[in-house]
UniProtKB/TrEMBL annotation, chain A:
It holds the Pfam family BPD_transp_2. It comes from the Bacteria. One of its GO terms (biological process) is amino acid transport. GO terms for molecular function: transmembrane transporter activity. PANTHER family: ABC TRANSPORTER ATP-BINDING PROTEIN (PTHR11795:SF442), BRANCHED-CHAIN AMINO ACID TRANSPORT SYSTEM PERMEASE PROTEIN LIVH (PTHR11795). InterPro entries: ABC_transp_permease, BCAA_transport_permease. It is found in: Cell membrane. Belongs to the binding-protein-dependent transport system permease family. LivHM subfamily. The chain crosses the membrane at residues 12-30, 37-54, 60-82, 94-112, 139-158, 186-209, 221-249, 256-276. The lineage of its organism: Bacteria, Bacillati, Bacillota, Bacilli, Bacillales. This is Branched-chain amino acid transport system permease protein. CDD domains: TM_PBP1_LivH_like (cd06582).
From TrEMBL, chain B:
Belongs to the ABC transporter superfamily. This is Branched-chain amino acid transport system ATP-binding protein. The lineage of its organism: Bacteria, Bacillati, Bacillota, Bacilli, Bacillales. Residues 6-235 form the ABC transporter domain. It comes from Salirhabdus euzebyi. SMART domains: AAA. PANTHER family: ABC TRANSPORTER ATP-BINDING PROTEIN, HIGH-AFFINITY BRANCHED-CHAIN AMINO ACID TRANSPORT ATP-BINDING PROTEIN LIVF. InterPro entries: AAA+_ATPase, ABC_transporter-like_ATP-bd, ABC_transporter-like_CS, BCAA_Transport_ATP-bd_LivF, P-loop_NTPase.
Amino acid sequence: MDLIFSLTLNGLATGMLFFLLAAGLTLIFGLMDVLNFAHGGLFAWGAFTGVWIYGLSGNFFVGILGAIVAGLVLGAITEYLIIKPVYGNHIQQILITLGFMLVLTEMLKVVYGPNQRAAQPPEYLDGSFTIGDVTIIKYRLFIILMGIIIFALTSYVLKKTKIGLIVRAGVMNKEMVQALGINIRLIFLAVFMVGSAMAALGGFLFAPYSGVIYAEIGLDYGIFAFIVVVIGGMGSLSGSLMAALLVGLAQAYMQYYVPSLALAVNMLLMAAVLLFRPQGLFSVKGVSTK
Amino acid sequence: MMKTLLKVDEINTYIDQFHILQNVSFEVKTGEVTVLLGRNGAGKTTTLRTIMGLNSASSGSVVYKDEDITKQNTHHIARKGIGYVPEDQGIFADLTVGENMRVAMQKEDDATKERMDWVLNMFPDLKKFWNKAGGQLSGGQKQMLSIARAYINENDLLLIDEPSKGLAPIIVEKVMESIQEMKEKTTIVLVEQNFYMASSIGDSFYILDDGMTVHSGKMNELKDDEVLKKKYLGIA
């Protein structure tokens, strides 16, 4: 029982990290039709910048803020310099964002040094507590709570605010949004920045979870974001959450029972979705934020 | 003499390698309904899209209220007071009727509220299905929503593309009635294949054929011109 609970909690925490990484990607793809293979780089930059600021300030929440700001700034730079010139051309987007992913990874080594960095959760989030026979690791619970908060906040903004309605409308019909007098370019930029900030936040939360970060984590974990987006349905936020939890749980259980198949199971799941339901498991029309 | 609100002067528009609009020119007078007529593929929809900046004109000009808007972005053009009802209605399928209207509203002042009252009075179905997703509406209700969205802002010009397309006759009557009423308050460019509707509402017309403006005049003249109607509109 303890094992099942522990694996499930681990899977949900991993899933929430995948959700934070994938949420921005799904909105960016859904609204902007942009394939951003540099998204994992923002995850890595968020991890390193957050850990650095956390180290300087000694305050974990200042670290969170630092990662978010790093994501916003890098997102703006990426959108303006890298993405803007290749709107509408998927081949160019893949090539330039893959290249930029490598640049972001190497730049991390230049700025923060080539070595791995250790990261610990703050004292109040470290360790575990038990309920009955079940041991609960505090930091994993914290990640799950953060994921729920971010999902609830993003869902609220998308469903209840005018800017959210415009983003959802833009996912469905960009031309019509413009014809109603709305500057879709600014909306694109804002979504890109927020999506990048979510990835950066995911990166920082990942650091104490994993205990160590290295420059290539963006390359290693970026693939999960794409798996999640494909399974969940491109443009669907709730689809991404469900898919991320599914992928996280599959990862946790497979890593325990058949470690050599951990990544393969998620790849197979993605392949099956592409074959039998290419619009994603949780999306009605392929691009939906319902 | 009525003032010219919109002047389209010798515009040429390409879509990929196809030369769709070839020196299309026409003028729209303030307070009139100007109808663009022509067979399928004549270039009517592309003309409206070029005015809105959704297709780029490679040459020629679009002048609105004495300002050249040819190279301006679509959202700037819309903010100058041009409302657009596209051929496919452009409804945001996952948003409710209310949310579709909210996205469209550029202001939330008394004037907008007044127009909202008018719209809901004209199209009671929109009020009835306020919380229903746009994608679940019938074709006629979608058309009403599309027109309502364009009308909700203080637009001086409405571009309406084939509002009767695919609708039942009784709905066409309702849409016609709404355009007749809007005509009292705003200038309209109407693309329409339904000649009965076009001739009932229109003040002046331009006929497009193969991407060129081939005829123009007052609508009541066209009503009696059987040769022209047969040649360009296929009406016997």
